[in-house]
Amino acid sequence: xxxxxxxxxxxxxxxxxxxxxxxxxxxxxxxxxxxxxxxxxxxxxxxxxxxxxxxxxxxxxxxxxxxxxxxxxxxxxxxxxxxxxxxxxxxxxxxxxxxxxxxxxxxxxxxxxxxxxxxxxxxxxxxxxxxxxxxxxxxxxxxxxxxxxxxxxxxxxxxxxxxxxxxxxxxxxxxxxxxxxxxxxxxxxxxxxxxxxxxxxxxxxxxxxxxxxxxxxxxxxxxxxxxxxxxxxxxxxxxxxxxxxxxxxxxxxxxxxxxxxxxxxxxxxxxxxxxxxxxxxxxxxxxxxxxxxxxxxxxxxxxxxxxxxxxxxxxxxxxxxxxxxxxxxxx
Length: 331
Fold this sequence. Notes:
Blueprint: H1 2-12, H2 15-53, H3 59-64, E1 72-73, E2 79-80, E3 91-94, H4 102-110, H5 115-124, E4 130-135, E5 139-143, H6 148-151, H7 162-165, E6 178-185, E7 192-202, E8 205-215, H8 216-222, E9 232-236, E10 241-244, H9 246-251, H10 284-295, E11 300-305, E12 308-317, E13 322-330
Antiparallel strand pairs: 1-2, 2-3, 3-5, 4-5, 4-8, 6-7, 7-8, 9-10, 9-13, 11-12, 12-13
């Protein structure tokens, strides 16, 4: 009995067991850091939505004090702010999907005080690359500014896009900050990103949606997937690789994760290619590993690939329905 107990005790404190505990501790600590960043972004988005909602009772008065000459209505029905980039102001785009009449102008002019708020957020929170407001009249106010006439198509029905409708009453009855969880290609040309969005209500009607964007590149940089955490990978529930470094991209036989920008105007939601989905990998071993971790939610799995054996530990990122994976080579 004493010998048996001694053997069990040695097993618990063996070098392998201690190493596995350290590996799991590193993974959990990194997951907590990511979750903390997610929660902070949600809180910031909710505050932004609240500030915008507070502007709607005073739209008429605020509009009367705004400078109407900053805006130009094009023959195709698009309203924009031509000097936004030059003056480092928030860009403005009203697509014309809803005719730009005096009531729409009142909303645009009455929310002009939003500009310093949008500008401050990316300055204070470096991971946020864009801060914006999309009103139900297909009106977009966004910072930093860019050439909206090049990036956005005339007549763009903004409420039909996922970065708007996922916050509406049907998809978000709790009226809280929510995430566009699957990485998508930003119609403003900033590459693959995820968005935190929050609804703006006035007198119990949805007026629009506030949003903050974080690029995949920022996630890779901020959590150092290229160096200190190069064996880690963030994956969405559907198997899509959200963020990782070049080392694991090579291991998993994925296309190089270069920033995806496009010059054509966007006409629909555009998500990541299936080439970045581990559940759709050409490798049976990779598919089985992803199934064990992402579908069956196992805490770990084994992978043997190209004569290398790996232990992959996994932990959830509940707010986004993601999982953080760490790949550990074994002899």
